Amino acid sequence: MTVIVVMGVSGAGKTTIGTAVAGRLGVDYAEADTFHPPANIAKMTAGHPLTDADRAPWLAAIAKWIAEHAETGGVVSSSALKRSYRDVLRSGGPVWFLHLHGARELLAERMKTRSGHFMPVSLLDSQLADLEPLQPDEPGRAFDLARRPADLVAAALTAL
Q: Membrane spanning segments where (predicted)?
């Protein structure tokens, strides 16, 4: 079975879309932020972007979750900004990337208006700079995050 990785920069709506897709499919959902070590959360809260070394244990933990759900399927969120990060996630088992992308202005506005999240808007540009679009050989599809969540979920399930 395939695990869906809902990917995109902060503010893209990964949690909203991921939980909805998991609910429609009747599979487990995992929020990528819960896999971060406390030092990563502290670093981002302080406005410092993570390095590849910072992300390595986080990506390994998500890949482990993917491996644990390879038979039943599941949905997990992850920024999955770089191809090399997605390669680590794919090492856990078959995945399909649901990439939420959109205008910087919309992303920033979403980040400003949400509550209870550690990621400051000041890190958005570093995430956008790191973002590498899905390549033709990577399983998945990109979706415009400006669409209504229900429409995004329906389109993703149709594409899957």
A: none
For residues 97 and 127, is the Cβ–Cβ distance under 8 A?
no
The third-level CATH classification (topology) of the domain covering 3-159 is Rossmann fold (3.40.50)
Every domain of the chain and the residues it spans: 3-159
pLDDT digits (tens, 9 = 90+) for 52-90: 999 999 999 999 999 999 999 999 999 999 999 999 999
Q: C-alpha angle with apex 78: 35 to 158, nearest 5 degrees?
A: 135
Residues 81-112 pLDDT 10s? 999 999 999 999 999 999 999 887 767 676 66
DSSP string, 77-138: E----SHHHHHHHHTTS-EEEEEEE--HHHHHHHHHH--S----GGGHHHHHHH--PPPTTS
Q: Give how far the C-alpha of residue 59 lies from the chain's centroid of Cα atoms, to the nearest Å.
A: 11
Average pLDDT over residues 135-156: 95
